[in-house]
Amino acid sequence: MRRVIREKFPKVANRVAVGRFLRRFREASLLVKPKRVHLSPDPDDNLILGTALAAQANYLVTGDKDHLLSLKKVNGTRVVKYPPPRFSTPHPPGP
């Protein structure tokens, strides 16, 4: 994961920043056993999708243009493009 982050974000991902991110990521993570799915011709995509489904994720944010985005929604998990659309949160009506 460390290598992938540095490769995808070379301008902002120095060793210290990546280490700090991974430490926080681990602290906030929920470990799940990925579900077996065969919805993409790419086995790596199936692993990522299976993990999102096992975690009952609301969103799977991806930059993958080949397979995942075409799924749009799987069992309640919306597959959205990076950068994601604005996530709306309910706000009380203004005055």
The overall strand count is 3
Lateral strand order in the biggest sheet: 1-3-2
User: SSE order, as H and E?
Assistant: HHHEHEE
- Low-confidence spans: pLDDT under 50, at least 5 residues? none
Shape: globular
Helix content: 25-40%
What can be said about the biggest beta sheet?
3 strands, mixed
Rg, nearest Å: 16 Å
First-residue to last-residue Cα separation: 47 Å
Query: How confident overall, as mean pLDDT?
Result: 85
Structural class: alpha+beta
Tally of individual helices? 4
User: Strand content of the residues, in percent?
Assistant: 5-15%
Kindly describe this structure:
With about 100 residues, this protein is α+β, with helices and mostly antiparallel strands. The chain is built from four helices and three strands; from the N terminus they run αααβαββ.
Short description:
With 95 residues, this protein is an alpha+beta fold. Helices cover 39% and strands 12% of the residues.
Short descriptors:
alpha+beta; 95 residues; three-stranded mixed sheet
Q: Helix and strand layout, with pairings?
A:
Elements: H1 2-8, H2 15-28, H3 43-54, E1 59-62, H4 68-71, E2 73-74, E3 77-81
